[in-house]
Here is the input.
Amino acid sequence: MLRLQADDVIAEIEQYRPEPAAVLDRLSAALQASERLTLVGDQVVDHFVQQARAAGVSWAEIGQRMGVSKQAAQKRYVAPRTDPAAGAANDPVPTMRRLIDLATQEARALGHPYVGTEHLLLAVLRANDPLTASVLASVDIDEARSLIAGTVPPTEVGAQDALPLTPRSKKALESALAAARTRGQDTADVADVVLGVMAERKGLGARLLDRLAGGLDDLRDRIERQRQSG
Here is the structure.
């Protein structure tokens, strides 16, 4: 089996930004590489989970083999989605799905073969949602896009290739959906997704928000105040 050594990844990042002063750029690239390596591992496991499901293996058996409950296995390997009732008459495209579509567009444009929390942030900035547009008024989408583009070199992404969500993106969306359901709503809104991205503090999306929006704690307070006043 192919072994990927840490030294190989370090050498690639050093080659990407070899300038002595580019230490923070290299750190950002290392964090992004870590997320991508985790994603690769998830994709490998996901492949064989889906293979087992196609062969008729139950979620209970899969969970037992993985050392987790049936519910945990389903939650981990079934992509988050809104309930069937979501997106009916007034919203034919549920907010979460629309944001994932926008995030995927951003990832493709940047040549990134995955949808990370940073792409979800760009989707939020494009969503024209009154609440989030107000609290994120200081965040310039072009500046955010430029910072994201500099984290990893672009790669060729096929127009028909499905772009997977990174583990942190999945967690951010699951958190958004859980928050919406605690309020008795069937689907997450844009603010829920922003809060979900913020909850993944080590993700690039949260780090960008912390830098561009004046701090995560303050941003969370402003979102909550806007919700209460709205």
